[in-house]
Hints:
Chain A is mainly alpha-helical. Chain A contains 5 helices and 4 strands. Chain A has one domain.
Amino acid sequence: MGDDGCTRRAALKGVAGMLALAATAAILALEQPSAQTQRAASPARELRPVTSFAGITNQRARSMALFEEMSKVLRHPRCMNCHPAGDHPTQTDAMRPHQPLVVRGTDGHGAPGLPCATCHHAANFDPAGIPGHADWRLAPASMAWQGRSGPRSAPRSRTAPATATAISRS
Amino acid sequence: MEFRIKVNGQVHSVDVLPDTPVLWVLRDNLGLTGTKFGCGIAQCGACTVFLNGQPLRSCSLAVSGLGNGEITTIEGLTGREGEAVRNAWIARDVPQCGYCQSGQIMSAVALLKQIKKPTDRDIDLAMNGNLCRCATYVRIRAAIHEAAKLLEG
Lengths: 170, 153
């Protein structure tokens, strides 16, 4: 096995790790108290192992199946809320409109006077029910996932299609 | 646990639990009661202060998350924008009950620091996280426009 094989194995490990990490994060998010008051069953809990796709011999079909599986994570409200099709994020597992009304702003960090960091800080703050991250912002408009099916969101993602293809070749 | 925090230019030492909201520390430990408790879940804006010059809902951040950041409360608000907003607020007689007004003023100053001549939409987008149960919104908007004019002169 040459460099190509190593690359495939690395990609496989990377995606498996990403899926595991995302699934763990999704499960933790469901199990820990948080801002989300309305909980929905997470499809990310039902992720299949990568090896279960080995039987799909058609490369394109396997790529699509893998991406569809991975998109269960991408479609989790925790991800989708900040990947809106417009300029307003949603919130909670019910993906209702963000309160207060906030906008994308010129750089994705909100409007002057009401940037995302007004409320969202480096870490979750459960006493107030505010989720956090060091660079809390809206995803770029080019990565709008809301309203898209899994594979249809692939052309908008910079890494996912290539990753799915790398897996399918392994 | 002891934390050293800088508020309005002064360093204070407070002994509180790490997840104590900054708002609690300001009001209960430091006696800076100009900043108000409204909802406790970052939905009303009454607790707005500045953290390193940027607006912050002080109910939404643990004191342990402050690090070396510097807090400015309504008591320590200075500068051209602060002065202009204060004068415009008085001229327009903005407050009714007044409870939300320190948060409103902090957000208005934050806006004017970034946009010197805001439009109605700029004001709405910056201020819609600050609720006023007396509905002084029309006067708030007029006062921000007036403060912008004061800053021009």
